[in-house]
Each structure stands twice: as C-alpha cells, then as structure tokens.
Design a protein that fits this description.
The complex is a heteropentamer of chains A (251), B (364), C (300), D (396) and E (242). By secondary structure, chain A is an alpha/beta fold. Chain A folds into two domains: 1-79 and 170-251, 3-Layer(aba) Sandwich (Rossmann fold); 91-168, no CATH class. Helix content of chain A is 40%, strand content 24%. Chain A contains ten helices and ten strands. In chain A, helix 3 (95-102) packs across helix 5 (119-138), helix 3 (95-102) runs parallel beside helix 6 and helix 5 (119-138) crosses helix 6 (154-167). The longest helix of chain A is centred in the middle third of the chain and has 20 residues, at 119-138. Chain C has eleven helices and four strands; from the N terminus they run H-H-H-H-E-E-E-H-H-H-H-E-H-H-H. In chain D, 75% of the residues lie in helices and 3% in strands. Chain D has helices at residues 3-29, 38-63, 67-86, 89-106, 109-134, 143-160, 164-186, 191-211, 213-216, 238-260, 263-273, 275-280, 285-311, 321-334, 339-355, 363-377; strands at residues 30-31, 34-35, 222-223, 229-230, 233-234, 313-314. Chains in contact: A-C, A-D, A-E, B-C, B-D, C-D, C-E, D-E. Chains A and E meet through helix 6, helix 7 and helix 10 of A and helix 5, helix 6 and helix 9 of E. Bound molecules: adenosine-5'-triphosphate (2 copies) and magnesium ion (MG) (2 copies). One adenosine-5'-triphosphate (ATP) sits between chains E (19, 22, 24, 42, 44-50) and A (151, 153-155, 181).
Chain lengths: 251, 364, 300, 396, 242
C-alpha cells in the first residue's frame, strides 16, 4: 500500500513550463530522493501532489485513487503529509499545538460536541494530545512541547515540521530540503531520524541538496532539470550519470 | 448642606433633564435645545424661583440622535432623579427614550420631534411643544396649491424617520390636491453629492422642488448644487432645513426659497423676552431654541402651580396651562400636543421672512 | 441622451473626488499595509484649512484665483504636517505591533482628530466663499461647471505625477523597497522612517487637495465629512487593488460612476448597495482587485 | 539615563511642541477678520505645561528618583498577581459569578442599564473574537449579524407572536445563515480585501434595514417589541432583564472557551497563523472559515434578539459601521483571542464614555485620545492571550 | 593574542544582544581585520545571524561596544552603515520581490550619487553573474533560489562595500552553485573586500576563510586560524559530522 504514482505530470505558470511529463512512483517502504538544480521544479512536484497547484495535464494516483484535483486537506486525509522548504509552522502556537492541528483530519467532534464537552469529545481530545506528544518525542522534541514554535531555533523548527507531519499519521511523507540550514552533524542526526520513520512503515519522498544525506538514505533517486526528468536510478548510478554531473553535481 | 434624610421640601433642588444630541451631526440643534431649557430656568430663577425648591438645575444628557444612546441617557436621567425631561430631538431617539421614561412616570416634553407617533401611543406624560408632521405636510401642500400655484412637484428626502415621514406626507397630500408628483427620491444621510438626483430633477423639470432633509447644512448643500446645476424650480423645505445656517451657507442660492416652520412670531413680548435672555448668554437662537425654552417654561410653570413634582399633579396643571411663550401661546391637549401653526417663510435678502400663514391662509 | 451624458459627467466628478482621496489611502497602505482610518480626517482638515486660508486671503483683497492657489498649497502643507505628527505619535511606536493594534490606533486618531476639528471649528458647517469658482459652461443641453473640470483635471494630473514619482524617482524606488522589506531597505541605506513619514505627508497632501475641491464643489465643509468619503475611498482603493496608484484612480471612478448611475437610473437610496455589490462582485472574481498584483503569498 | 539621552528627550519635546503650535494656530488664529494669537496661546500654554510635566515625571522615573513610590506599588501588584495565580481558577470564577449575580441588588437603574450594555457587548465581543481573534479574519461588518438577530426577534414576535425563548435560537440561526452568506464570497480573499468586503456587507444590511419599508418599516424602526416572559413571569424590570442577558453572556463565555480549546478552535488558530499551511495540514479551511463566521454571527444574533427585547424598539441607526468598529476596538484593546481580555476591553470601552460624560464636548476627543494611548502603551491588549510575541526583527 | 598589533576594521567587544528577554548573544568579542575572510560557525541557534544583525545595528546591542574603522557605531542608525561600507547579505536573501533585477541592484547603490560609477558597477556585477544580465527585467520574487542568491550578492556589491557580511550564502543551493558562490567570495576578497562569512557548510567555509570563530549558545568558544579549526578533532566531530 501507500503507492504513489505520478503519471505524465505537466505544470505551467503562464508562459513557464515548470514540469514536463514527470512520471515516477514511490512504493511501500521506499525512500526516494528528488534532486535537481535550483528552479528545476522539485517543490512544484510536491505542490502538485499535495494539491497546492493544479497539474495542467497528467495525473497522480495514490493506492489507485486519483489525487490530482483534490484539495490539500483531502490529500492529507488520504495519508500524504509534507514539510515545507521555507518553514511554515504556526508561529504563535506551541510545538504540541502545532502537532495537534495535524490531527484535525483524524478527529471528528463538531461544534455541538465541543460546546457541550461530551465524553466522546474528551476522549478524542486526550487521544489527540497523546498522539501529538508521541510525534514530538519521536523527533526528540518531547520536552519542548510547550515552547512557542517561533521561539525555537531553526534546527528544531525543521524537526518540528517533521513531527507535525508525522502527527497526522501519514503513510507517505514528503520532505522538502529537511537538511537545509543544518550543519553536517545535525544532518546526520536527521538521517537517523528518517531511518526510524521508514521503520514505522512510512515511505518517504525527499528533496535535498545535501548529497551526503541523499546518497546515504535514498533507495532510489529521481533527477529533474528544467522540469524534465533527466535520470532515475540507484544512488550509485546517479552519482556517475554524466547528465546529472553536468546539470547538478558538477566537477 | 443638610444631612438629614428627611429634607424639607424647601431644600429640594428641582432638576430638569434635557435629552438632545450633544455630539454627532446634530450637535448644533442639540445644543440649542439644552440652551433653550437653561434660558428658561434662568428666567424663572431670576423671577425668584419656585416656592418649595431651593434651586433649579438643568441636567443635560446626550441622546446622539441614536436610539440606544438615547435610552442609556434616559436611564441616566432617571438615575439622577429628574422628574421631567425636555427632549429629545430626533423622533427615532425620542420614541424609545420616552418608553423608558414612561416606566418611571417621568414627564417628557419634546421641543423638536414632530413625528405623529410620539404622542399617538397613549403615554400620559408625553407632551410636545412643536407641531406635527401630519399638520406640516398638508400646510406645505396647501401653500403649493393655493399660493404658489404649482402643477408638479419633485420630492427628495434623506431617509430618516422625520424627513421621510414629511416627504411621504407631502407626496400623499400633493396627489390628493391634484399636484403631479414627478418623482420622490431618497438620498442617504451624510451624502454630499446630490448630482445624480438633481440631474433627474432637472430632467423632469418640476414646478416646485421639495427638499425634506434632516439638517440645514445638507439642505444648504442641496440648494447650492441645485441652483448651480440650473434648476429653476421653486425650492421649498421643511422645518429641519429652516435654520439661519441655511442662508449663511447657501447665500444667494437660497434666495427665494420657501420653508415651513412652526410659526414663531418674533414680535410678541414672549419672544422678545426670550431673545433678550437667550442672547445675553448664548449666540443667536437656533431653530429649536424657542421651543425648548417654552417646553422648560411650561414645565416650570406647571410645577409652580402644582407645588410639587408629582407627575399626575403636574400633568393636570400642564393640561390647564396656557401662557404666552416664545414660540406661541402654549397649551396642551389631552394627547399632549400643543397644536401646530405652520407658516411658510421665504428667504429674502438673506433672511427668513414670514410669507404665508397656513391657518389663516393669509399672506403677511 | 443628454441625461445620460450629464450623469456621466457627474459620475466622473464624484469618481474624481473618491480617486483623490483613494490615492492617499493607497499610498499609505502600499507602504505600511495600514488602513489609515484617519485619512478621512486629513481630508476634512484639508477642507477646513481651505476655508480658513482662502477666506483670510480673500479678506485681504487677494485675487480669487491667487487665493485658491495659495490656499491649496497651504492646506496641503498643513495636512502634510498633521499627517507626519500623527504618524510619529500614533503609528511609528507601533511598527512592531500587530496590524490590528495599529488599525485601532488609527481609529482612535480618527475620532480624536474629528472631535478636535469640531472643537476648534465649531459644530456647524463652514461655507466656502464659493463665488470664486461658481459658474460653468453650457454644452448643448449639458451644463458643466468649472469645478467639475478642475476636479477631473487635478485628479488626472496628480495620477500622472504620482506615478512618475513612484516609478521614476529615487524616492519612489525607496518607497517601494520600504514597502516590501523594511529591514532589508535599512541594510541598503534607506531610512524607512523618513520614507514612511514622507509617504504620509504626500497622502495627506492629496487628501487636503480633495478636501478643498469638495468644499468648493459642494459649498460647505463639516467636521464629520471625512467619514463617508473615507470609506468609499477605501473601497475604491481596494477595488483597484490596494497599494496600486492607477488602481485607486480606476476604483474611484468605478465607485463614483456606479453610485451616480445607480442613483440616476435605479434608486438613489440603494446606490451604495450597488457600489458595494460591484465591489464584492469584482473582488469575488479577482480577489486582489482590478490592478492588484497577483503576488502569490501561497508559495510553499 | 545618560545626559545625551536626556537632552534628546527635551529637544524632541521642544520640536513636538513647536510642531503642535504650528498645527494649532491656523485652526484657532486665522480668522477672515485678522490674525489672532491669544486663544491659541491660551490653549497651547496649558497643553505645553502638561506635556512638560509628563516628560519631567517620565524623566525622573527613568532616573530612579521616583523609585520610592514605584517600588512598593510594583511589589504590591506583584503580590496581588501571585495571590491571583495561587487561587484556584474555579474560586475566582465563582467570586466573579457571585458578584455578577448580586450586582443588581446594589446598582440603581442606571447601573443596571450600563451592566446590560456591558453584557451585550461581551456577547458581541466574544463572538467577534471568534472571527478576528481566533480565525484571524478581519470583520468590519460584524454588527450586521446583531441587526439580523434584533430584527428577527422583532418581526417574529410582532407578526407571529412567537415568544422570546422560541425566537432566541431562531434569531441565532438566521444570524448564522447570514454569516455564511457573507462569508461565502470572502473566502477567497485575504487580509484587508476581506475587511472592505465585510464592511460593505455591513453597510448593505444597514441600508436594506433602512430602506425596505414593507419589511422593516425603514428608518422608523419597529416599536412595541415585547419583553421576554417565562411561564407567565414577565421580565419587565431592568434587573430581571439583567439576569436574562447574564445567562446569555455566561453561555457565550462558556461556549467560546470550549470551542477555543477544541479541535475546532485549534484549527481556527492554525488558519490565523498560516492559512496555506493549515490547509496542507488537513484543515478544511473553506468550511472552518465559514464556521467561524457562522459561530461569530450566532452570538451576535443572540445578543441582537435580546437587544430588541430590551429596547422594545429596533431601528437601523443601531447597526452602523461605527458600532462594528467599537466592538472591534473592544476585542483588540482587551487582547485578541483572550476571553478575560475581551471582557476587560468591553468594560473599559463601555465605561470610558460614561466616565467622560462630564467632559461633554470633549468626551469623544478624550475617548479617541485614550484609545490611541492605550494601544501605544499596551499594543498586545490589556490582557493578552497567552500566546503572543512573534519572531520579529528588532528595529527602532 | 597574536596579531593584535594590527588595527581591526570591525570589532565587537563583549556584545550582548537580546530578543525581548531572551539573550541571544551573551558577551561576544571578535575582530575582523582588513582584507581577510573570517568565518563564524556554530550550531543552530548559536547566534550567528544575530551577530551579523548586531554588527549592522539592526538588532541593537544592549551591552558592549561595536567598532567599525576605529569608531564606536552602537548609536549609528542601521541605514547609515551601508554608506560607510558595511554591507550585509542577510539570511534568506531578502530580495525585494516586486522590484526587477535591475531595480534590486540599483537599490544596493541607493545612497550613492555617482551615476557613472553606479553604471560601471552594474556592468561589473553583470559580468560576475551573467545569469542576472539575462534576467534583468524579471521580478526578483520570481527568480529561483540560486538566482536570488546571486542577486543578493550583486546587490551588496553595488554599494562598493569595504566589509561584506554574508549569512549562509549557500543555503538551499544546488552543489554546483555552492561551488560558484564560494569562487565568487574568493574573487571579491581578492579585490580587497573584507568578508565575514556565516555558514552551516563549515567544511567549505573553513577552507575558504583565513580565520574562524566558533559560536555556542551566544558565546565565542573558540577562535583560531581556519586551517587549525578545520583539523581540530572536536570541531570535526561537532560541526563537520565526523
Ligand atoms: N507560483 C509560481 N508562479 C510562477 N512561477 C513559479 C511559481 N512556483 C514556481 N515557479 C517557478 O517554477 C520553477 C520551479 O520552481 P520550484 O520551486 O519547483 O523549484 P525547485 O526545484 O524547488 O528549486 P529550489 O531548489 O531552488 O527550491 C521556478 O522557475 C519557479 O520560479
Ligand atoms: N527575532 C527573534 N525573536 C526571538 N528570538 C530570536 C529571534 N531571532 C533569533 N532568536 C533566537 O536567538 C537565538 C540565536 O538565533 P540566530 O538566528 O542568531 O541563530 P543562528 O546561529 O543564526 O542559527 P541558524 O543556524 O539556525 O541560522 C536562537 O535561540 C533563536 O531562537
Ligand atoms: Mg524547492
Ligand atoms: Mg542564522
């Protein structure tokens, strides 16, 4: 399960063809890296999957169900969660609350239940809190639950982004440059954490410029350039691919 | 002062509340009302006051021409234990305020609210010193028909209880009288730009253009624009437009305009007394100063006659009362009305000049 | 047909008035994203200053047109000074606060200024010596007053000048940079406070010009006259795409036209309803206003 | 404070006063008859003296000369604060509620009247707080829902003879529906575009109330609306009305509190913080924004129905933009998103004009000035919500 | 210590900076000498960006002194510093999104009046970053991350800085571009510009710089020659991921 398939996705912004016929898949248990030069369209791929942008043609399916055209919250409800390249936490909410918001789609009490504070509402609230706390603990932020998220240092904010995504109980996780702004040893901790995530049975699609990280944990890598897929394969293959070296890796 | 709970009557202070818009766009008229009452109190005090009361004071309250504020202000006056209130100005504020005052049997005498509803609700302690819209409108139409001899009229109002009531009254009476109503348009309060409506007026080319706006400066603005646009119809307004400021603002453009206003004979002794008193303290009286003066005066005289502020007794005295006030000879009927005597004034040489009396049907 | 064209001219004039006020609104909004409720008060103060200066000059026997010219300049200067004081006292200390805090401060200022005007100038309206600009000319069945021409001409003139200022000068560039990123503009050597104060001054100067035009055109000014046109101008600025100068002009004209035509052809009591419905309708289909740049803040 | 700083302070005071004089004199001194100075001078000198005094006190305080007054005060307030924190919340709430319950016994008619106003505004403020404080949607036409509630009760009771208690939920529902109608087209807009559209809607509602003669009786308003009664007991007196609105207000406080601390409240806050991220984290922003408008409107509808029955009269003048602005001011001044803050804001803004009644003509001037000053002194509100403080670049 | 006979061009002495009650810098002292590249490394939240912002007075130092060219600048307004040659490429680039590329570059030369010199510098920047010349009419906000970084750098160069503060210039850039950026830093430095470089990519930064400071939770814990730091085992473990 948790099979994400992109099929000939094209995205256009006015005159700019941001993505052209992008097709790849993400199977259960995989960690796939998505790399490419700046402006290649990596974040755009994420945006298409999560419903922020509409594909001008092509389709994405998740477990056989079409997800292109769905609203972002519906995509999340299906089990695809993401983080953001430029941190988009809820700045004035605490770390725990940030995670609790992500539980929104996994809970159901309505206005009446909330106002009356029915027993089922209390039970649900307790469950939300527990799940969120567990997500924080998982990313090593357990004792910062009550910190206002904007007061956290940058690296912790990055981790909180992941914790928040995890709190929505996804089957698939999309990470957009999770190691940006982290120093090499911090990146290494991050790699370990991502390893644990896959152990939970969550598959990961990751955009990252830090080659150590990408090569270290990805099973497969997809390379984009100017919105076109120029290579796909195992890390070793990619590292040696002349097209990738010319467009992206250099030397 | 004395600290005894059982004060003798002689130590009592007689309070009169005033309720009028002291802030907001009608603050000007509102202050006239307050000052009118103060002038009356000053006169009575100068005459030696009222036996049994050590002093008479005016307690002003701001109705802001807004129902909610008016009710709050009325409650405040009740708290201040005033036995009577002069006011309010806008009928839409007077009516809810009077309901509140009625709960405590407080006498209310309005110097300015002309809506028929004010005295038609059967409230025993509601009185009115000014005229009624449903008298003013027929008077205006009678003038159009008999004196100005117009065949068609265009009516504009600005959608307040008062201005629209007047305009509707004129429209109805005009139809009855066989004057063609070429249009009846409503503008909004606070508008300054009347060009669209005035272009329409110009297009329909009525014999008379009837302006029913809530205040004189809107009136002046409309008059200026109408004349500038080349509307040559006879202009006519009602008593809210009737104000010295209309002429001050519109200057030459106001020349020849007619207005109905409850007749104030400025030659009577009552008026001259009032004028002397009033202008010694304040600037020239506004349109409602005299009515407010008379309202307060009526109450004070009634209390004097009754020797108490007990509302039932004072009401009885008010109904018996008849005195030569500043605005007219004041006497109230069972409903609390004091009759209307609408006169048509004309602006001539920068002044309102009485032109035609609707009761007598005579030109001055 | 004459009726239609006459209404068209009315609409242009009213639209011009709204546009003049909206220009200032939009400039201030453009730079600090503040709905400056006090802007309507600058407009009213401009109207009063016009009366004060023009009446005084006229009493000194100065030629009417000279009176008008000097009065206009002085009133604009006065309002610019007023706006700078207001900005310094009520807005600058709140630069870091939430935008609603500033909004409220602006509201308080608006109440304060309105009542300040009332206390110093009296509750009654003031009349302009309108003889200065009375008159007009007949064109077929149409009557066009000189004031109408002046308002439209002034609006167009100021539109051009402002666009030049903002897009062609150093100051303009600094204004745009400050609007987009205050910290960064400091890092390239722009004093954001000066630029913001200057923008307020210009905006208020424009409002003052509008106040005088309105006073001359309608004959009177009142202390509460800023409120309704202020809201309409705000609507106009938003309709055109708030922050955009040409947009403010277009928005002003549209609101003015809609009002006049709704009043002239449908119902004058519902004219504002039509104006707001057009506003909502346009924004529904173009949520950033007619000329609003589609700056996509949803990029994730 | 260094000498330099102190010098700068006095210089800027001087410049400020000169500037003020330049602004004041044309207003007071230029008359067609000639130039005058005496009046300007009279006003100016008073204000200048006051300003100098204020700056001097400020100066002394900075210099520590006034510590002997300040320190005990600070200590005392800290002690009170500590006591307050120690006392259990329920005890405090019980005390407040008890005070609210016995209040009419001690207040006169005017006191009751003001208290009723306060309670009405608390409902309005908390309702608007849902929209502005929690969901972050700037609503400048909020009072329209209050109007809908008021007219709903007025018309239903007069035309269909429905009782107050039947009408209360109906009024709330109608208000909620109109909240959705207003909310719908605004959902695609952000920030200030939303502000003007809501303002426009508010004006449209007011104009319809003012102009639709057959339904609303236009500017004349609707008279003779019955007071609530309950199995024969008529709430005619002000003090019994007070208990009705107290009940509604307590319900509102409770409901808003519980909503705030539920998944719905969290979702609203997430929308306020970052709408795009909220949607991507699984919040149906469309529905929840609509819900925010509807819930806010519901409380306004309740308050409106009560307002109609208490005034026994409704007219369109009660539902102007200024009223919306006032309610917004209460929310922001008190502290957005904080229930005690909003209540405090209401108390302050209702009390201020009453306190200033004696200023008469100066009342609104003082009111505007105080409003401005309070914002300057406490930009986050009098009693801010816990979560404040934004990661901001520090700059002069 | 060793080279203190030279007069530093930029110096912090016991500087404390705070955001509200949080002290981000707890008494930092550091020196930058004319013509060198100094790098500041440290973990997330150590206060590197705050240090740069404090140098420009955007964040006000609550204690301590900042000297620039021998003069105390604590009370100089931040907008005065660029005119004196102190420029910053801040974290996150902060391109003016709705100004075109050319206008963005012009903003860099805002305080300058010599239009001939400005024109010359514009050409120089375009030569350095040919990609920018291609895009000169495009709005800054629509550029890709790498192009924005070049623009930010070009904008700073337009003010002819004596001292250039760079905050994480390689963040989010593709490996190829990272190399380019570091080449450019070396080139600029070769032209006589002093550079203060804050980087997470400590490896590259230390290779490029002459000296380095290590920051930990708002304090300087180590300062040394860059090459020495690069080979320090503690540093390698804590910041270079080994
Ligand atoms: N909303 C938009 N409007 C216009 N152009 C856009 C929009 N979003 C993205 N683009 C353009 O599409 C292209 C791809 O952008 P995208 O953000 O996907 O790049 P990326 O591969 O994530 O780059 P980076 O590594 O720098 O993050 C870029 O040229 C960008 O300018
Ligand atoms: N605007 C701000 N408001 C409040 N706290 C802040 C602010 N900016 C930074 N901080 C705090 O100050 C400390 C230092 O932050 P700074 O941004 O200088 O770190 P840094 O070394 O640049 O980290 P990074 O590598 O993540 O960029 C951190 O604890 C951070 O949370
Ligand atoms: Mg990207
Ligand atoms: Mg940093």
């Amino acid at each position: 399960m948790a099979n994400l398939i992109l099929d000939d996705i094209c995205v256009r912004f006015g005159g700019l063809q941001a993505l052209t016929d992008v097709s790849f898949s993400l199977a259960e248990g995989e960690v796939v890296g998505l790399i490419g030069p700046n402006g290649a369209g990596k974040t755009t791929v994420f945006n298409v999957i999560t419903g922020v942008y509409k594909a001008s043609s092509g389709a994405a399916t998740y477990d056989g169900k079409r997800i292109t055209g769905l609203r972002p919250y519906q995509v999340l409800a299906m089990g695809i969660a993401r983080t953001f390249q430029n941190i988009r936490l809820f700045p004035r909410m605490t770390a725990l609350e940030n995670c609790m918001v992500a539980q929104h789609s996994r809970s159901s009490v309505g206005v009446v239940g909330a106002v009356l504070r029915s027993p089922s509402q209390r039970r649900e609230e307790a469950r939300i809190q527990e799940k969120s706390q567990r997500a924080l603990d998982f990313m090593g932020l357990g004792d910062m639950a009550d910190e206002i998220s904007s007061n956290l240092p940058y690296g912790h904010q990055r981790r909180l982004e992941i914790a928040r995504a995890l709190a929505s109980e996804p089957q698939t996780l999309l990470l957009d440059e999770p190691a940006a702004g982290l120093n090499p040893s911090e990146s290494r901790e991050l790699m370990e954490a991502i390893g644990h995530i896959t152990d939970l049975g969550i598959n990961v699609l990751m955009v990252e410029h830090d080659m150590k990280v990408v090569m270290g944990i990805c099973n497969r890598i997809v390379v984009l350039d100017h919105g076109v897929m120029i290579a796909e394969g195992r890390p070793e293959q990619i590292q040696r691919d002349p097209k990738v070296i010319e467009a992206y890796l250099g030397q | 002062g004395s600290d005894g709970a059982e004060e003798k009557q002689a130590d009592q202070v007689l309070k009169i509340g005033t309720l009028s818009p002291l802030t907001g766009p009608y603050a000007a008229d509102g202050n006239d009302i307050r000052q009118g009452a103060e002038a009356a109190v000053a006169v009575i005090k100068a005459q030696g006051g009222i036996p049994g009361f050590s002093d008479i004071v005016v307690v002003p309250a701001d109705s802001a021409c807004d129902p909610k504020q008016a009710v709050a202000a009325a409650n405040k006056l009740i708290n201040d234990k005033v036995p009577a209130v002069v006011g309010a100005y806008c009928s839409s504020a007077t009516i809810p305020a009077s309901e509140t005052l009625a709960e405590e049997d407080i006498i209310m005498i309005t110097p300015a609210s002309t809506s028929p509803v004010v005295t038609e609700r059967g409230l025993p302690y509601m009185f009115r010193t000014c005229g009624r819209d449903d008298h003013q409108a027929p008077a205006a139409v009678k003038f159009m028909k008999e004196v100005a001899d117009v065949k068609s009229v265009f009516i504009v109002d600005d959608k307040t209880t008062y201005s629209q009531g007047m305009a509707d009254g004129v429209a109805a009476a005009a139809k009855e009288a066989g004057i063609e109503v070429l249009g009846h348009e409503h503008v909004n309060q606070g508008d300054k730009d009347f060009s669209a409506v005035l272009t329409m007026v110009k297009d329909r080319n009525p014999d008379l253009f009837y302006i029913s706006l809530q205040n004189s400066s809107s009136g002046a603005t409309m008059v200026i624009q109408a004349r500038r646009m080349g509307i040559n119809a006879i202009l006519m307004g009602q008593d809210a437009v009737f104000h010295p400021k209309l002429i001050e603002f519109a200057k030459a453009d106001a020349e020849g305009m007619f207005c109905t206003f409850g007749d104030i004979d400025t030659t009577t002794q009552g008026y001259l007394d009032f004028l002397a008193n009033y202008s010694s303290k304040y600037s020239a009286p506004g349109a409602y100063s005299a009515y407010s003066y008379d309202s307060a005066m009526a109450y004070l005289l009634a209390v004097k006659a009754a020797g108490t502020t007990d509302p039932a007794a004072v009401r009885a005295e008010l109904l018996k009362l008849s005195f030569d006030g500043a605005s007219k000879t004041v006497s109230y009927d069972e409903k609390g009305d004091s009759g209307s005597n609408y006169t048509v004034y004309q602006v001539r040489d920068g002044q309102f000049v009485p032109y035609w009396n609707s009761l007598t049907g005579q030109k001055y | 047909m004459d009726y239609f064209i006459q209404q068209l001219i009315n609409g242009l004039t009213l639209g011009g008035v709204y546009a003049l006020i909206a220009l200032g609104y939009t400039m201030v909004y453009g730079i600090i994203q503040l709905i400056n409720f006090a802007h309507g008060e600058f407009f009213a103060a401009g109207g009063y200053m016009g009366v004060i200066f023009i009446s005084w000059l006229a009493a000194q026997g100065v030629h009417p047109y000279v009176c008008l010219g000097i009065g206009l300049v002085l009133a604009m200067l006065y309002c610019a000074m007023l706006a700078m004081a207001v900005e310094r006292l009520a807005y600058r200390p709140l630069r870091q606060a939430s935008r609603l805090a500033v909004l409220l401060s602006a509201l308080g200022m608006s109440i304060f200024l309105q009542n300040g005007l009332m206390l110093t100038q009296g509750q009654y309206d003031k009349a302009y010596p309108t003889e200065i600009t009375a008159g007009g000319f007949q064109l077929g069945g149409l009557y066009i007053s000189y004031m109408q021409c002046l308002i439209v001409a002034l609006t167009i003139f100021l539109l051009v000048v402002l666009n030049l200022l903002v897009f062609k000068t150093r100051i303009g560039k600094a204004m745009r940079a400050t609007a987009q990123d205050k910290v960064m503009s400091a890092l390239v050597g722009i004093n954001a406070n000066h630029i913001i104060a200057l923008t307020f001054a210009i905006g208020a100067g424009l409002a003052a010009a509008a106040g005088i035009m309105v006073g001359l055109y309608y004959g009177t000014v009142s202390y509460s006259m800023g409120f309704v046109p202020g809201i309409k101008a705000f609507a106009a600025a938003v309709l055109g795409g708030i922050g955009n100068i040409t947009g403010a002009m277009i928005g002003g004209l549209i609101i003015g036209m809609v009002e006049i035509f709704a009043a002239g052809y449908i119902s004058s009591q519902y004219k504002d309803v039509f104006a707001f419905i057009i506003l909502i309708g346009v924004l529904y289909f173009k949520p950033t206003g007619i000329m609003g740049e589609n700056v996509d803040d949803t990029r994730v | 404070m260094t000498i330099q700083e102190s010098k700068r302070l006095w210089v800027s005071l001087g410049v400020g006063l000169f500037w003020f004089l330049m602004l004041l004199w044309p207003l007071l001194g230029i008359k067609p008859g000639g130039l005058e100075f005496s009046e300007t001078w009279a006003v100016f000198s008073k204000i200048a003296v006051a300003a100098v005094l204020i700056v001097a006190v400020y100066h002394l305080r900075q210099a520590g000369v006034l510590d002997f007054i300040g320190t005990p005060l600070v200590k005392a307030s800290e002690a009170v604060g500590r006591g307050y924190q120690k006392a259990p919340t329920w005890l405090l709430l019980a005390v407040v509620l008890a005070a609210a319950l016995i209040y009419p016994q001690f207040a006169g008619r005017y006191g009751n009247d003001v208290a009723i106003s306060v309670l009405i505004y608390i409902c309005l403020g908390l309702g608007l707080n849902v929209v502005v404080g929690l969901a972050g949607l700037l609503d400048l036409g909020y009072i329209a829902f209050y109007g809908v509630g008021a007219y709903a009760y007025a018309l239903l009771s007069l035309h269909f003879g429905l009782s107050f208690w039947t009408c209360l939920p109906i009024a709330a529902m109608l208000a909620a529906i109109s909240g959705c109608i207003i909310g719908f087209p605004t959902l695609r807009m952000r920030g200030d575009y939303l502000a003007i559209v809501t303002l426009g809607f508010g004006e449209i509602v007011r104009l319809i109330l003012n102009n639709w003669m057959t339904l609303t009786n236009g500017p004349n308003g609707i008279l003779g609306i019955p007071r609530p009664d309950f199995f024969g007991y008529n709430f005619a007196s002000l003090s019994s009305l007070y208990y009705v609105i107290l009940g509604i207000a307590v319900f509102t406080v409770l409901a808003v509190y519980r909503l705030n601390h539920s998944r719905i409240g969290r979702a609203w806050e997430a929308i306020r913080e970052d709408e795009t991220a909220a949607e991507l984290m699984g919040v149906n922003t469309f529905l929840l924004k609509l819900l925010a408008y509807a819930m806010g409107a519901t409380f306004a509808g309740l308050a409106g129905a009560f307002f109609a029955s208490r005034m026994r009269f409704v007219g369109p003048e009660s539902f102007t933009f200024l009223e919306s602005a006032m309610v917004l001011a209460m929310v922001v001044l008190g502290g957005m998103g904080s229930i005690p803050g909003v209540i405090l804001g209401v108390l302050v803004l209702v009390a201020l004009p009453e306190l200033f009644r004696d200023f008469e003509l100066y009342r609104m001037l003082v009111f505007g000035g105080v409003m401005c000053t309070m914002m300057l002194v406490r930009p986050a509100g009098l009693w801010p919500a816990k979560r404040v403080g934004r990661r901001s670049e520090e700059m002069e | 210590m060793n080279q203190d006979s030279r007069q530093p061009i930029l110096e912090l002495r016991n500087v404390v900076s705070a955001y509200g009650r949080i002290r981000a810098l707890k008494g930092i002292s550091l020196k930058v000498f004319d013509g060198e590249i100094v790098t500041i490394i440290g973990a997330n939240g150590a206060g590197k960006s705050t240090t740069l912002m404090t140098m420009c007075n955007v964040v006000k130092a609550v204690e301590g002194d900042i000297f620039y060219k021998g003069e105390r600048i604590n009370d100089v307004a931040p907008d005065q510093l660029p005119t004196r040659g102190l420029c910053q490429v801040p974290e996150g680039r902060r391109i003016f999104p709705r100004l075109t590329v050319t206008e963005n570059l012009d903003m860099g030369a805002f305080f300058r009046r010599d239009s001939a010199g400005i024109k010359e510098d514009l050409e120089r920047v375009y030569d350095l970053f040919p990609k920018l010349r291609e895009r000169r009419r495009q709005l800054g906000g629509t550029l890709s991350g790498g192009e924005q970084q070049m623009l930010a750098m070009g904008r700073a160069l337009m003010s002819r800085p004596r001292v250039l503060l760079l905050d994480e210039p390689s963040m989010g850039l593709a490996p190829l571009l990272v190399k380019q950026i570091f080449d450019i830093i070396a080139t600029i430095n070769g032209q006589g510009v002093t550079v203060v470089l804050v980087e997470q990519n400590a490896n590259l930064a230390l290779q490029c710089a002459q000296r380095g400071y290590v920051l930990e939770t708002g304090s300087v814990v180590m300062e040394d020659e860059a090459s020495a730091l690069l080979h320090n085992p503690d540093i390698r473990k804590a910041y270079l991921g080994e």
